[in-house]
Write a structure and sequence with these properties.
This protein is α+β, with helices and mostly antiparallel strands. 20% of the residues lie in helices and 32% in strands. The strands form 2 sheets. Strands 1, 2, 3, 5 and 9 form a 5-stranded antiparallel sheet that branches. A 4-stranded mixed sheet has the order 4-8-7-6.
Length: 152
């Protein structure tokens, strides 16, 4: 299967950006560097995609998971591009979010404490528990084509 990025669409949501910056400033006020990273997120429903773009991430839309109730972000686009995390739209494309995420103090999976801002399961993902720690910055539409035997 061949994948092709069709474009990159910048999301501009001033309200979400202000909340995200407030979280980063709060971390700095407590002498914690936000440790921002660009991470990927796939979404299994079109309604969820709309929610993320307009009101941001909410852990209630992401129940369960390996680490618990939180919002999960992948280090690699291929992880978020799996069918369980991203839907195919009627035109055959899949949409991924590229997010600015304030990791802050991150603990390894299984060692979370109340002074941590995120949990990681390196090398694949991070999980945040304050949904304003992430700003959905871009949507990346990806198309898929099946290769014929002689093209592989």
């Amino acid at each position: 299967m061949s994948k092709k990025i069709l474009g990159i669409v910048r999301i501009q949501n001033y309200t979400l950006w202000r909340y995200y910056n407030a979280v980063c400033n709060s971390m700095r006020n407590y002498k914690v560097p936000p440790a921002e990273q660009l991470l990927f997120h796939g979404c299994p429903t079109t309604q969820g995609m709309y929610q993320i773009e307009h009101v941001g991430y909410r852990s209630r839309f992401c129940p369960g998971g390996a680490i618990g109730d939180g919002v999960y972000f992948a280090i690699s686009a291929s992880y978020s591009d799996q069918p369980a995390y991203g839907i195919r739209l009627p035109d055959g494309t899949r949409q991924l979010f590229l997010n600015r995420v304030a990791i802050g103090i991150s603990a390894p999976y299984g060692h979370y404490s109340s002074n941590c801002h995120s949990v990681h399961n390196l090398p694949t993902m991070y999980c945040i528990f304050n949904h304003f720690q992430a700003y959905p910055e871009y949507i990346i539409p990806v198309s898929y084509t099946h290769l014929r035997a002689h093209e592989t």
